[in-house]
Amino acid sequence: MQKIKLNNGVYMPLVGLGVFQIDDLEECEQTVLTAIASGYRLIDTASMYLNETAVGNAIRKSDVPREELFITTKLWVQDTGYENTKRAFEDSLKKLQVDYIDLYLLHQAMGDYYGSWRAMEDLYKEGKIRAIGISNFFPDRVVDFIAHNEILPAINQIEINPFYQRDGEIELLKQNGIATQSWASFAEGKNGIFNNDLLTSIGRQYNKSVAQVILRWLTQREIAVIPKSVHKERLLENADIHDFELSAEDMDAIATLDTGKSVFFDHREPETAEWLTKLRYDA
């Protein structure tokens, strides 16, 4: 599977499985097992998803050596702060049943995330994390974060899909040596994305699905992806995107779909910030 090199020299698979909203733990465990057996090596979870234990069970039951897997999890807002982060990290390790995390992310730019980053830097130096990064950080927060921390984030995981393309933000990250990873690559099916005329017509040219066109559009620019599916045929389809290349005309055409705004919510709106700040999970 194709990989990208992060700014600390660690290689990360370009395509992985995201397990957000796979709430049934048996289904989550089986999905991860199926994905690994199908060739997936990156699994992306988070404490907030409440399925780290299921992911850990799948890792333990898999025949694939731990060192061949790339496991990502994330720190939620309620766990920010130096000591809280240390505790939350150990809890994630225990649930995932592993000795180290490949990529540990700040899930939101909220709470005492600077204190959390100090803890993450220490855990990284101790060898308990192979790479540390951020998620849902907007350009101003990225620039400020770079200026005031010792270790540069390896990645920023943000919403990117044909309706919310964020080219300027991606370029800013690239200029600063930070990789980009897309969540909600399919916009969770919103705006009729899977029946979009343009994406369908492009897919027809290559005998590929709309989902494959979207993932190719992203990975062709070295944007990592973590699409979710609980169906084996879709898992295989989502990984089968390296045998074709979109033309410059295709890329320009897809650019016209950009609305310049999230299909979900704006993290910078006071109402959204208040909601995320109050959102809690039951550890």
Automatic annotation (TrEMBL):
Q: Which residues form the active site?
A: 49 (proton donor)
Q: Does the keyword Oxidoreductase apply?
A: yes
Question: Which residues does substrate bind?
Answer: 107
- Entry-linked SUPFAM superfamilies: NAD(P)-linked oxidoreductase
Question: Which Gene3D superfamilies does this UniProt record tie to the protein?
Answer: NADP-dependent oxidoreductase domain
Q: What InterPro entries would the database entry show?
A: AKR, Aldo/ket_reductase_CS, NAD(P)_OxRdtase_dom_sf, NADP_OxRdtase_dom
Q: Tell me the domain of life.
A: Bacteria
Q: Where is the NADP-dependent oxidoreductase domain?
A: 19-257
Question: Which residue positions hold the site described Lowers pKa of active site Tyr?
Answer: 74
Q: Name one GO molecular function term.
A: oxidoreductase activity, acting on the CH-OH group of donors, NAD or NADP as acceptor
UniProt keywords, alphabetically = NADP, Oxidoreductase
Does the record bear Oxidoreductase in its keywords?
yes
> Which region is the signal sequence?
none
User: Family, per the entry?
Assistant: Belongs to the aldo/keto reductase family.
User: Could you tell me what this protein is called?
Assistant: Aldo/keto reductase
Record lineage: Bacteria, Pseudomonadati, Bacteroidota, Flavobacteriia, Flavobacteriales
